[in-house]
Amino acid sequence: MGAGHTHDHGGDAGTDQRRRLLTVLVLTATVMVVEVVGGILSGSLALLADAAHMLTDVVGLGIAVLAATLALRPPTARRTWGYRRAEVLGASLQAGLLLAVGVLIAVEGVRRLLDPPEVTAGLVLVFGAIGLAVNIAGLVILARGRAASVNTRAAFLEVAADGIGSVAVLVSAAVVLATGWQRADALASFVVVALIVPRTLSILRETTAVLLEVAPRDLDLDAVRTHLLEQAHVHAVHDLHASEIVSGLPVLSAHVVIDDTCFLDGHAPRVLDALQTCVAEHFPVPVHHATFQLEPVSHHEHERHAHA
């Protein structure tokens, strides 16, 4: 005997996320082109690094828009969760692109520290200010939806890092204008690298955990087992598993051994209701997609492959 719940897996929230991502994609692509032109005209690595960072954002946001679009497609008989995990795959690709760009910028930054070219700092200030203004606009657009999915959160983090990168560009340009020290531009590019790598690793850890079906970080399965065992008529819990379809959508399944008499006196449905309520309301991570297989005590000897 088992049970589960059906819920809306897309809907208006997903449509709103896609709209926000698409708006930021257009803004970011526009600024990327502006910064490439500015970097070429001024000879600034920091500005080109920020533009390269924005290039990965453009690709990443494009992936994010595609993933958000696929996530809205309804489930089918073969794809019972629809394309929800497209969000996780999209975030993984974004993180991979960022990591590659970070390495390239670091290599070029070292070269320019050893042999710094001349930078036209005035132009860098102008183009850096434009980039920062658009970054702020993008953050405002994405801020409300970033908690809804890892896909939108990855995009938000990219734009946030771009904003800090733009600040670094502006500071380096000011230093060059004030002191003539050209290496400040190369140092600013390392700030971009320092922004890219930690958040990339964070996103990769989260998406890898989802793809490997690791239990949600804030869901303690030992505590879940203990609480399930405290329910009336429950003797044992085994084959307890929990994972996430996407970030924020946990699923759980378990075999629960209950009194044999529950199947004779009609009490089993009430036990099932108690189990569902337990995992949906008692823990920091509410689990609304839970499946329980209820088994009589006498059935235990047939569970040859049962495990904890």
Give a brief rundown of this model.
With 308 residues, the protein is mainly alpha-helical. The protein has helices at residues 11-42, 45-71, 86-114, 121-143, 150-179, 183-211, 221-229, 268-281, and strands spanning 234-244, 250-258, 289-296.
Structural class: mainly alpha
Question: What's the CATH architecture name of the largest domain?
Answer: Up-down Bundle
Globally, the shape reads elongated
Q: What is the mean pLDDT?
A: 81
CATH homologous superfamily caption of the largest domain:
Cation efflux protein transmembrane domain
Widest β-sheet, arrangement of strands: 1-2-3
- List the secondary-structure elements in sequence, H or E: HHHHHHHEEHE
Which range best describes the helical content: under 10%, 10-25%, 25-40%, 40-55%, 55-70% or over 70%?
55-70%
Evaluate the radius of gyration. Answer: 26 Å
Low-confidence spans: 3-11
CATH overall fold name of the largest domain: Alpha-lytic protease prodomain-like
- Give the N-terminus to C-terminus distance in angstroms: 19 Å
Biggest beta-sheet profile: 3 strands, mixed
Domains (count): 2
Continuous helix count: 8
In terms of topology, how is this protein built?
Layout: H1 11-42, H2 45-71, H3 86-114, H4 121-143, H5 150-179, H6 183-211, H7 221-229, E1 234-244, E2 250-258, H8 268-281, E3 289-296
Parallel strand pairs: 2-3
Antiparallel strand pairs: 1-2
Helix pairs in contact: 1-2, 1-4, 2-3, 2-5, 2-6, 3-5, 3-6, 4-5, 5-6
